[in-house]
């Protein structure tokens, strides 16, 4: 993107997330983990959010894990919800109440595909 879009969010499988969360960079600074180092504003990574997502483990064909890095802004990503969650009036069935609900989801719109990167085999 010629530095127009810069990634600010990193999603990792749970095992890799826990690894960077507990692994220290240096024994002299035990509180300085890889996770803190990568999200530190003084570094040039630009990452503000790193999260663990269980669905990324084995997400690629075979046992390969994947990670996702992207710019989390409304200009790049938009989640479309054509119908918000609606609750119907409660129905009594015996000693229980049943409440039917409905909603619709149109999915995620990625306006700038090059602002998202999927890496397999991490």
H-E order: EHEEHEEEEEEEEE
Rg over C-alpha atoms, rounded to the nearest angstrom: 20 Å
What about the largest sheet? 4 strands, mixed
- Based on secondary structure, the structural category is mainly beta
% residues in beta strands: 35-45%
Give a brief description:
The chain has 122 residues and is mostly beta strands. Helices cover 12% and strands 40% of the residues. It has two helices and twelve strands.
Structure write-up:
The chain is mainly β. It is built from two helices and twelve strands. A four-stranded mixed sheet has the order 4-1-5-12, with helices on one face. The longest helix is centred in the N-terminal third of the chain and has 9 residues, at about 15-20. The chain starts with 8 loop residues before the first strand and ends with a strand. The model has no long low-confidence stretch (mean pLDDT about 90).
What features would you highlight for this structure?
122 residues; 4-stranded mixed β-sheet; two-stranded antiparallel ribbon; 12 strands; 12% helix
How is the secondary structure organized here?
Elements: E1 9-12, H1 14-22, E2 24-26, E3 29-33, H2 34-39, E4 49-52, E5 66-70, E6 77-80, E7 83-87, E8 91-93, E9 96-98, E10 101-104, E11 107-110, E12 116-120
